[in-house]
Amino acid sequence: MISVHLLLCLAALTGGTVNTRIIPRYDGMLIELTSDDVITDSVTVAGYSVNIRPGNRVVMPAAFLPFWVYGWETDADSCGFTVMLTDAVDSLEYSLSEDQRVMLLFFRAAEPLVFPELSWKGPPDEPLYFDSSLAYSDSSVIAALELGQQSPWLDDFDCIVIDPGHGGRDPGAVGPDGTYEKDRALEIALLVRDILNIRRPELQILMTRTTDCYVSLGARTRLANAMKADLFISIHCNAAENSSAHGFETFFLSNARTDDSRAVEMLENSVIEYDDGYSSDIGFHDNALSFLLADIAQNIYLERSSALAVAIQESMIEDLSGRVSRGVKQAGFYVLRGALMPSVLVEIAFISNPEEEQMLQSLDFRLASAEAIVDAVLIFAEQQ
Length: 384
Description:
This protein is α/β, with parallel strands linked by helices.
């Protein structure tokens, strides 16, 4: 990977200040410089270093770091700052307004991210089901589980299933401003897929859904099992009766130990009512062997699922500075039951909290959340 280092060195003169604003886009990132005084159009390019002098002291923005940048650093004399971009950015364009008080720098992406069309269109004509007979077509899987061993395909880390929570006739939680959980979860999940495709193109990234459609809880893990995935990550937005509840948390499959965990478990498991002819066993065939295998699988992957959950929490603490970590928790989520690989459920933010609902509506925040999940996945993969 070749890192692009762009040096924006802004001279501090007496007089006014130059304010900066970061505007993330699907096709790159804008940096906007504005001033009450005339901006000096002085730009020097040397390779991947770009020197910009607007003529006054620059005020740095307080913003989440978009996916397109690794970070930035203020110069010692406060006259500028350094931006470190990923190699997903391949060009820089800039322009100065006619009155010379606004300068725009556009860091253009090599490959724009693809976003879904989201709207409430009611339930699809038929819910999507996955062929459950494929889940255990390989007898070696059952043999391994009966011996207390992990799925044989996990020796090669090459496939990840990303599961956007809810969808279609199941909107999930709804924020006070009318934001649907299913939409925000899908947007973040697609960003996770796209960022993983950029950073680790050799990995196969599969989605349980890519549009606003309904997929039963059982079909989600059956897909992961049939495709022999190495990780299963379900992405959600939290909700609580207390509108001040806030922060992020990550769950792995086990018995809920706190009232908060039980509340989240009940909320997410209530989705099962949307399934046609559901049973209490979501991920396995309706027989004694399948129930036994589900319990065995849960114990086999308990430690690794917990490790993945910890990695995600730590990554989000680092990438989403200032937000509250609610920690790693355990609960009996139906959507994780039956997964034959390490699996977690991530609650990005409380959509029931007006402030966090606004954050979820921000592309900047969704990019930062997706990047944190990707960072954790790659750290976890290196440790396997």
